[in-house]
Amino acid sequence: MFRKKSVLTFLKAQVAAFLGGITDYGVMILLTEIFKLHFTFSILISGTVGAIINFSINRFWVFKNQSNYSSHINSQLFKFALVVLGSISLKSFGTLIFQKLFQIDYRIGRLITDLFVSYGFNYPLIKYWVFRINEKQNAIQSN
Length: 143
Description:
Residues 18-131 form the GtrA/DPMS transmembrane domain. The protein is mainly alpha-helical.
């Protein structure tokens, strides 16, 4: 039962990440190609938009961690914001490295960077820190 729930949570988190990520990537392309912003600035803006989508889906569907206590959501938002700042920084820096050092188009460099950041940084922090469910919450959700 535990494994099945963990796999389901992981898969649902990937759906949330995909929806936030596709929005993030699309807005980045729009801002860079149409509005001619440098891709590092586009990543900052698009990452924020994608993060709002990702947070909402994670909170209400993936982890179902929806306590109505304002201090609880404020804590989740603060933690999530820190993860997003780290994520955006890693994505901007990684994309820049791929583009400058390896002459890889920023769109491809961004996709490569996203794979590492999503699985190695975002998912573990979101699951085990932002939306961590303690034993008391787990008992309530099981009922």
